[in-house]
């Protein structure tokens, strides 16, 4: 249960970061790609938390 909450909160954080990049960037290619990537990972984390399955980020395994 706690894993779902953490995953959901982290998903909201990633979507908020993508929105901030979209608002405050100069809309060149790099920031737009980063915002789309963060938004996609954040939405996946949110949907995974709702559906009670592992997100793409949690499947990466332990990172050094």
Compose a concise summary of this entry.
Helices cover 78% and strands 0% of the residues. The protein is mainly alpha-helical. The protein starts with a helix and ends in a 5-residue tail after the last helix.
Secondary structure category: mainly alpha
Determine the oligomeric state from the structure: single chain
Order of helices and strands: HHH
Biggest beta sheet attributes: none
Characterization of this structure:
With 64 residues, this protein is mostly helical. 78% of the residues lie in helices and 0% in strands. It has three helices and no strands. It has helices spanning 2-24, 29-51, 56-59. Helix 1 (2-24) runs antiparallel to helix 2. The protein is elongated. It starts with a helix and ends in a 5-residue tail after the last helix.
